[in-house]
């Protein structure tokens, strides 16, 4: 199974131009042939050594009875449901149009992965448009020119993790020796709003990942058979966990037990990485007897750097005696070893007995919620004023750094942009002061928070 990328965006932003560049043949029609019926169009794309399927949605200017917005919406939704990743194109020359915001909303609700690109960005005339694209709340826009082939390296880099994963999926699902309960991607697409919450359970071998996943599955009676859960090759499982649809991503622990332990050891980090890239929430599963090993820390740190919500679950709690003493020590170790995940929920569970799984589920939902949180610009700026009054930024060489304005540029995880003078002179400690303050003031524990300082030029 190869990666499928949908190119979406309002008419004339350059979708077909990019499609043609990626596909290399004039498969999609461009705007010099008005009135030609167009709909979703598929081609085999190449970008460097990546091969993927690309869907073009440039079919919007046909005249029918339906409103443009209605057609645009339908077509986009169809493409989004077909794709693993959506490339959302805006026009950096014209700047944002109302339709762009409609798209952003559809994508936010419906797509699991969105890459935002500001096209026609060759030359300085596009600068303002590229910055404006931040306002869509979909992260940092890639600066590209479909016509001139600029920014293709950045596009490559943005697609790379997904292509890796899609390839791995092919490799993993190819030799199906057991009945695969869920073949990822084969299941009928769910309606947009019920998109399953994507969860990765990661941790060292023997932490109890398979036991945990089986327990979750078993209790919902989705599977039967003595060995259900540990004998499948699918890379992910879609489940209904106490009423919440979730997709749980495979890591080494879910894989065939026949594989030698040594190999599992080696695989578990890279498999963990792959799962982390797909997930919204990462559950770092630790063995209470040997918590916070190097490998656990690495994967938790990676999850933070990848911008995922993190829940730490301490497993095998049934084996512990002095529970409250132990818990206190674990909390301290956690704060100390993973300060970047400050406030992330720590849940004790027993995968074996099922104790604590309800709390784990609640923590996953809460973490997901925090990760998606949006704070209004008005509240942010009131808060910023208070923070600056309480503790003004430094004045390097006698010139005080002025924080002028701030806005939340994205969610999943929350990302903020602060407009200020001399952003390059701001010490890291002041950044931390702001990030920790944001966490407290707007109740965003555990989620990575991105803070970008920009000068207003
Ligand atoms: P679509 O409706 O989104 O598929 O847009 P098209 O691909 O048909 O492009 C619309 C117009 O924008 C065409 O005239 C393209 O030549 C032009 N265009 C596309 N990409 C670029 C670009 O990178 N730079 C500039 N300046 N124009 C572009
Ligand atoms: P994985 O490699 O992370 O998938 O770990 P497994 O699920 O295979 O579990 C490793 C071992 O730990 C197995 O012997 C499990 O029975 C045991 N185990 C897993 N969870 C628990 C638990 O909550 N309590 C106890 N006592 N043992 C557990």
From TrEMBL:
CDD domains: EngA1 (cd01894), EngA2 (cd01895). One of its GO terms (molecular function) is GTP binding. One of its GO terms (biological process) is ribosome biogenesis. GTP 1 binds at residues 9-16, 56-60, 119-122. PROSITE patterns: G_ENGA. The keyword Nucleus does not apply. PANTHER family: GTPASE DER. GTPase that plays an essential role in the late steps of ribosome biogenesis. This is GTPase Der.
